[in-house]
Amino acid sequence: MTEDSWKRVVRPDGSSSETPTQTSAPAVVLGKDGKPCRSCSSSAAFSSWVTQTKKVTDGARLRQPSPGCPPDVEALGRSSWTLLHTMTANYPTQPTPNQQTNMAHFLHLFAQFYPCWVCAADFEKYIEVNGVRSASRDDLGRWMCEAHNAVNKKLGKPSFDCGKWEERWRTGWKDGSCD
């Protein structure tokens, strides 16, 4: 049995286990109720789990969810970061104290109610450790970029140059490719 023929399952308490599988299967994250969490797992992992529980042995291929289906963790993440970065790009350059408080409050609530409980806990922890910097658009933009980079690091993805956050999310690239 090869190393990649193990399946990792993450439980709500943060513990995990690895079990051998016949084929390499992506990890499925369990919800707080002990059932697989669709919002916390990739569509490939969820499909794999469904296939295994139905004991389908015909080699059904893993697929991307149809446009009308609930989002998996990857689609949810992309959509969420797009929303958060776009809100940041439209945040006032000199927000009032009330706007600063409201943005910090929104981000706390966003983390609290995020559908993927694992992601929510990570974002809540990030906010707890780093606070929310909302004194200006630039402060919030850099903070949001740093938060996103912390997630990218956990996922093994490359970091984004936070000095270019506004070009990416507000003004468009200097090369004119967004015009």
UniProtKB/TrEMBL annotation:
Enzyme class of the recorded protein, top EC level: oxidoreductase
Feature: compositional bias, Basic and acidic residues: 1-11
Enzyme Commission number, as recorded: 1.8.3.2
Region (Disordered) location: 1-34
Listed GO CC annotations: mitochondrial intermembrane space
Annotated localization: Mitochondrion intermembrane space
Top-level taxon: Eukaryota
Enzymatic reactions: 2 R'C(R)SH + O2 = R'C(R)S-S(R)CR' + H2O2
Swiss-Prot/TrEMBL cofactor(s): FAD
Family matches, as SUPFAM superfamilies: FAD-dependent thiol oxidase (SSF69000)
Domain ERV/ALR sulfhydryl oxidase: 69-169
UniProt name for this protein: Sulfhydryl oxidase
Organism: Blumeria graminis f. sp. hordei (strain DH14) (Barley powdery mildew)
